[in-house]
Amino acid sequence: MDWPQMLDTFARMPAAEQQAWWRMAAGLLAVVVALLWLESRYFKPSRRVGSWLAVRLVSVLAALLAVAAVLLPARAVGGPAALGVFVLSLYTLGPVVWFGGHVLAGRWVRPALSRAESLVLGFTGLAIAAVPVYASLLAQSALQTAARDVAQRRELPASNPLAHTVQPVQRYQLHGVGLIYTQSLLGTPNTRLLRVEQRHGGGQWPTHPHPVAHPSYCTHGNDVHLMWSAQEPPPYLRLHWAQSNGAPTKAEFTPQLVFDPATPVPDFPLTLRPDGADPAAPIARVRAYLVLLKEGQAAPSPQAQTQQPPQTYTQMLGSPPEAGEVRTTDCVMAGFQLSPAVAKQGWQVQAMGLVFQLSTGGQPLRALVERK
After folding, report:
1. DSSP symbol at 283
2. How far apart are CA 311 and CA 297, in angstroms?
3. Cα–Cα dist 276/76, whole Å
4. CA distance 36 to 30
5. Each residue's pLDDT tens digit, 11-69
6. Residues near 232 by beta carbon (within 8 Å), at least 6 away in sequence
7. What value does the CA radius of gyration of the chain take, rounded to a whole number of Å?
8. Is 364 helix (H, G, I), strand (E, B) or coil?
9. Backbone angles phi, psi at 289, to 5 degrees
10. Dist. CA 249–CA 165, nearest whole Å
């Protein structure tokens, strides 16, 4: 969990939990101060507390240099050899910089510290530093648990300036899947959608820059379109966009499911054409696939047991673009057409499949709609 996520999670904790964290932080600070005070008492009889303090200030610089000496060579090498370089630096360059810095600082201060005293300060400095480091590891685990609680409660921030126009949630029945929901967030004029992030069950926002498959939503220009099944948790999104003056802004969003139980739920309209499809609501490409049939061939008939099976081809719509294909959206929307390369080979749409992965694991829910 990175630093911004930690602060965001802490800000959303109940007031009583925040106060408990502040008390623990104050106690941790008191322990570190007490250890440093005890360490300084050793140098008081010889009137070298000032020298001790100077060496301790150098400890901060030595720590930064030691970390750089361990990490920078590994990053410079990269690849499989980076781990070996990191371990080698950890046991060679790191200790040399850390303890060497204390020895040099001990010689430089006046009154000077002996070599043994400087080395002891190096060891005790590691012991004192281990206290907040260990506490931070425990705190990170607790914050991850708190982040999961925040995600489950689905509480949006108090300041959440969403610039998109939120359309009502629509309900449909989809054969093989059951109840599904769709919703659209329409971008406002003079804004530009930068990216969309999804908060998953672990409660954390993605921290890596690489694109991740997101079957529960897709984007078309500045618009964001959602689709999920009743057996999946509703998407929890964070939208980043640029305002008219170019200033970046972000806001969170999660659907609110409020319906009249007496209202009937229609079937999901999905019209298939030989050259494409017209869904009633946009579908993420990674959720869909097409079953294609060669032009001029007949679909398999259950009455004809001996006929030669037609040549079919399954196209995963979430796959990378094919040669000559230009994509302006990761949605399957009304008016969707086959890529030119596929259409030139004489393929026609016979059916479209939709896959809904369950967060609990197990077999995914599947729907297959055939062309009439």
Report:
1. E
2. 8
3. 49
4. 10
5. 878 888 889 999 999 999 999 999 999 999 999 999 999 999 999 999 999 999 999 99
6. 216, 356, 357, 358, 359
7. 30
8. coil
9. -145, 155
10. 15
